[in-house]
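DM from R.C. (forwarded with permission)

"hey, sorry to bug you on a friday — could you get me a structure for this? deadline for the figure draft is monday and I only need the backbone to look sensible"
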Amino acid sequence: MSNMAALFSEHANLCKGIKKLNAQKARIEAEVATAFKSDFDLQLAGKEYNCGTVNAVQDGWAIKGTVGKDIDYDQAQLRGLYFKTLLTWGDPDEYIKVTFDVEETKYKAWPSPIKKLFEPARTVKPKKMSLSIEKIETESEAV
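My reply, with the result:
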């Protein structure tokens, strides 16, 4: 077997191993998320869209979960708002393709009246929780 063929084989084996480890990690994280679901739900209940960071500690381990947001805007509504406010002539769809997007950081900085105008076009969905599980180091372990 050539040197390159050996590298290719090693790479393929590593990829299989990584896939297997990722599946095991996902299974463990799902079990942990299920075990802490009621605690995490309580922590997220007061947060906007039930998104944010949650924390738990058990048996010397720190569990941190993060639920992000998927923000989606109704393109038809945004198109209507765009043309309603900026264009008063012709049908721009005849010669241009427009895709609208709103950056969340900019949205959060807008004054309330502008936010209210865009709210009907905005959908917020929580993402899947990501977890990190870390051993809490005690003073005796740190030495």
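R.C.: lifesaver. The chain has a mean pLDDT of 86.
me: no worries. Strands lie at 52-58, 61-67, 69-73, 122-126, 130-135.
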